[in-house]
Amino acid sequence: MRRNVGAEKNTATGGTRDREAVDLAVILPPGSLRKAVEPHPAAEPVTDALSVTVDGVEVRVPAGSTIFQAAEAAGYTPPHFCYHRDLSVPANCRMCLCEVEGQGKLQTSCSISVADGMVVKFDTPRVVEAVEGVLEFEFKNHPLDCPVCDQVGECYLQRYYLEVGKYEPLPMNRIRKLKVVDLGPITMDAERCVLCSRCVRFGEEVTGSADFVIANRSDHSEIKTFDDRPIETDYALNYADICPVGALTSNDFRFRKRVYYLHTVKSICPGCSTGCNVYAEQSEDALYRYRPRYNDNVNDSWMCDPGRTSSNALADTTDRIVAPMARVNGALVEVEWDAAIAQATDAIKRTGGEIAVIAHPDLSNEDLHQLRALVSHAGGRIDFRVADSWQQIDELVDNVLIRRDPYPNTRGALEVLGVADSAQSSVPTILADVAAGKTRGLVVCGWDLGALGEPGREAVKTADWVWFVGPRRVDTLDHADLVLPTAVHVEREGTFTNHAGRVQRFWQSVSLYAESRPAWRVFGDIDAALSGNATPRTALEAFDRLAAEVASFSGLSYAAVGDQGSWLRGWEKETMPPVGIHAMPGVRRPSPE
Amino acid sequence: MSAPKILMQRGLDHPGKSHTLETYEATGGYRAVRKALDMDPLAIQQEVKTSGLRGRGGAGFPAGMKWGFTPRDSEKPKYVVCNSDESEPGTFKDRWLLENDPHTVIEGIMIAAIAIDCHLAFNYVRGEYSYQGQCFQKAVDEAYAKGYLGKGILGSDYDLDLVVHYGAGAYIAGEETGLLESLEGRKAMPRNKPPFPAVEGLFWCPTVINNTETLAAVPWIIENGGDAYAQYGTEKSKGTKMWSCSGPINTPGVYEVEFGVEMMGFVEEYCGGLMEGVGLKGIVPGGSSVPVMKPEQCQGARMDYEGLLERGSLVGSGGFIVIGDNVSAVDCLLNLAHFYAHESCGQCTPCREGCGWIEQLVGEIRNGNGRQANLTKVLELADAMAGKTICALADAMAWPAVAFIKNYPEDFAKLCAGGVDLEALGEAVSRHDHILPRAS
Ligand SMILES: Cc1cc2nc3c(=O)[nH]c(=O)nc-3n(C[C@H](O)[C@H](O)[C@H](O)COP(=O)(O)O)c2cc1C
Ligand code: SF4
Ligand code: SF4
Ligand code: SF4
Ligand code: FES
User: Fold this and answer.
1) Chain A CB within 8 Å of residue B142 CB
2) B246-284 pLDDT, tens per residue?
């Protein structure tokens, strides 16, 4: 539905067609553009829509929309520094100017609400000249830092300058400010700051930590933290994202990679049951960072620091299991996958009777469904509720995003494994039955012995056989007869279901590590050998089977889930409140007028 | 020239005593507010509308109309704020009122409050006006002691409190929404408008904010009727105006005259003419923010909203600055640029960077290091600033910058290294002088 107004036009006014993903086409030679450039989620059709014409393109937008939003609906994102879709609108950068028919003065599109029949123009010499002028002011006291600045490639200043810069030398007597200030998670460079106040507003409106202030006034205005304190919020790295320039950069990421070498795919943070939408970015098959990806129903534009830096742990392969292993003469030796699957199938057949499966809430919906199919054909019991965090699946740790349940797919596991109705975990009884010899085979997914506790320690000793399925070496391996290495989520495709019942897709970012395989395939292969049902060929096929067999997933498909997710059946919600303290009662959030 | 004294009569008649409640009451004080208490609030607003009273803080917006914009039925409380932040270079009329007739200001605030059903009012006094603030506070204390303020004012069942609040020393806190931010306890950073204060002002509640002089005229209007006030002045500029006059004149000071007097006659009759040996270089009639007028523009100029606009300037805040021919326009502009570069709140990109840049460019000229390119750049910057920011401070820098260069190119040329091609400069001026206020 988005119409492209045309590249010439964008060049003329310094705008870009995409809001969050920086349009690097202007900075880089063709072909090196690797950022995810995606349209915004299509607006719901609205009944009380107003008609607005932006540079000749007529669009209908809901009442209360700003000119900026109408322009985006018309396919054009005005140049901007201060505007951010999830923050209040100060209209202080003056970059998004436009002409509104019937009004003499230029207007800031981010702060003016549309009226029915409004005719707006960005594509006029007057607007272009004004934007050029504003941009020139930004450079008056900006250092010539690009070669040593980590923002290069995703810097709004750089991009706009390339488009509407005046290319005239400026005086060199610049005002000097603080540089390279270590604020803990963030390095601050006050000279590069364009004083858009995004960071100030984020601290006030989202986290409530009010970390940044703008000190002094006029051209001596300077960004700093209150009382020069380090930043302590769990959301500090969002500052690096929202800062449109290189004034705030992430100590976790800075100088590790020029961003234009990164390849971006959409993913989901596996850090907790919130399931923040992210971009996963890799270079030469190594994961470098997550960046939050907008999702109105989940995380808005934000994510937490522990979640973000969990990409480093994912990228770390030192404790990864390289290949399938079987115990031979008391020692684990590497075997081929075919042999491992055959051994597994044999073990089930030989044992007869029930098997015990302790699943894991970081397995995807597809993995869990294949595992459930396997258990139903082998006969046995399955549960995943080793820790009681599943009971706090909805509970926020703070007023922002982090939830007490540290797993990405607890909701999915509850639904897919069909244990959602039972108030109590059956893990202790399952393990006790193994320890008592009532159940003879035990499958442990991912958990270490510490997590399984005393019943687990007993069970792994008494069971006839123990398999371990998971990506990393843990002490459970010491008792395993068979070890089946699986992929972490960034190495394959799949879906997680977040605490609120939103089914969300993630895509493959890096290659499978060594011999590891997606868990759905491992379980599918064993199940195929047992039941004769073919293994799904793709994650998509695995998901379709899930949708066909589990009621709350019925009607869902990868296409329907898309990159913004879908509610589970029976979990549909109208709207989700904005993320952050400004959603709390009594917190003022000035609305655009 | 006739000399009606609506605002200054008491001060002139009772020097040294006019500020006391005793004098105020003896000369008819607090009669208008008693009358207002018996009036329908809408009738008060109508009377002020009839008077044609326009804001004296700079923008000249009709006061009655502004009051009428506050919602009649509001869930939220409504506020009246008197703007005594007077910090515009050249303007010192509110200061005279606070010192000499504070009770008129209080009574004006009371009537405005009654007219919009407000029960808590503020006077925001410029931080540096500590003496004037004390004068006003003393008057407020007197009024409270007599039960004129507080619970059940003047024996009625109408409650009204008045709080005196001092600024912390920022010109921008005089801009109405900057003032509101400051009053709320934040940095004085002007807000985007709309919403206008009448709808969402102090603490996001409906607020009437008026200049001290505007409010001081209200008691007279209520007592004598809007029509009586409208008798004074010209067709579109009603009433009287206080001009604070400075410069190389024989009798600098504050003078109240009807709108519409002729400018050079005013200089002679009120300002006592220019000092001996000094010729007229120009006049900045409305405070430092308005464009400077050359002698030929001043000659025959009517001192009212329309008359000054016709001559390319503005009434502004009534800071009447006479410039003698013994000063250079370069120094004038440098002085102003220094002021605005210091006082910009720093929110808007063009104003934040532009004011300091202009100061730098003019400073180079002043020091003999500037060239013609400095002048063209100043003009360009002024154009890039005017009308593109949240408040009018950017225009207040841009207008004088263009006007001084336009009116006194020779002064700048004299100091520019490498000389100036006046014709080319003239062309540059004509490219950018469209930003100056003009009669449409
Ligand atoms: C930069 C700037 C400074 C201002 N300073 C003052 C001031 O000191 N006092 C004042 O009354 N108005 C000042 N104003 C005008 C106010 O914004 C506002 O228009 C006025 O207080 C409204 O009152 P009035 O309608 O009675 O004039 C200033 C405006 C600007 C843009
Ligand atoms: S540090 Fe960055 S986000 Fe903060 S005001 Fe400066 S440019 Fe904006
Ligand atoms: S809140 Fe949870 S899902 Fe979101 S980024 Fe943090 S750990 Fe990841
Ligand atoms: S124009 Fe200047 S003073 Fe006014 S809000 Fe913008 S930066 Fe502040
Ligand atoms: S984006 Fe509109 S003024 Fe900054």
Assistant:
1) no
2) 999 999 999 999 999 999 999 999 999 999 999 999 999
Instruction: Tell me what pLDDT residue A423 has.
Output: 87
| Token pair for B3 | 């000399």
Query: Ligand 4: which residue has its CA nearest to atom 8?
Result: B345
Residue A367: closest CA among A539, A169, A588: A539
- Identify the DSSP state of B286: T
Q: What is the pLDDT of residues A211-232, one digit of tens each?
A: 999 999 999 999 999 999 999 9
Q: Is ipTM beyond 0.90? A: yes
In sequence order, which residues have a C-beta less than 8 Å from that of residue A350 and are 6 or more positions away? none
**What H or E segment, with its residue span, contains residue B243?**
strand B240-246
A39 closest CA partner among A21, A59, A62, A14: A21
- Please report the domains of chain A, with CATH numbers, ordered by start residue: 24-140 (3.10.20.740), 325-567 (3.40.50.740)
Among all residues of chain B, which has the CA nearest to that of A193?
B349
Q: What is the pLDDT of residues B197-244, one digit of tens each?
A: 999 999 999 999 999 999 999 999 999 999 999 999 999 999 999 999
Which residues of A fall within a CB distance of 8 Å from B355?
Answer: 218-219
DSSP letters spanning A422-461: -SS--HHHHHHHHHTTSS-EEEEES--HHHHHHHHHHHHH
Q: Of A266, A256, A240, give the one whose Cα is nearest residue A183.
A: A240
Query: What are the pocket residues of ligand 4 if the criterion is a CB atom closer than 6 Å to any ligand atom?
Result: B 172, 190, 344-348, 351-352, 389-391, 393-394
CA distance B358 to B432: 15
**Sequence-distant (≥ 6) Cβ neighbours of residue B160 within 8 angstroms:** B110, B113, B114, B118, B119, B120, B121, B149, B150, B153
- Do you find a cis peptide bond into A592, omega within 30 degrees of 0? no
User: In terms of residues, how long is chain A?
Assistant: 593
B194 vs A197, A218, A593: nearest CB = A593
Cβ distance of A141 and B388 shorter than 8 Å = no
DSSP assignments along A231-275, one per residue:
P--TTTHHHHHH-SSTTEEETTTTTT--GGG-EEEEEE--SSTT-
Give kind and range of the element (H or E) at residue A511: none
Strand order through the sheet with A355-358: A331-334, A325-328, A482-485, A465-470, A441-445, A355-358, A380-383
d(CA A223, CA A214): 5
Q: Which two tokens stand for residue B272?
A: 């006592």
Residue with tokens 């070669």: A147
Domains, in order of start, for chain B: 21-230 (3.40.50.11540), 240-324 (3.10.20.600), 329-435 (1.20.1440.230)
Q: Are B33 and B107 in contact (CB under 8 A)?
A: yes
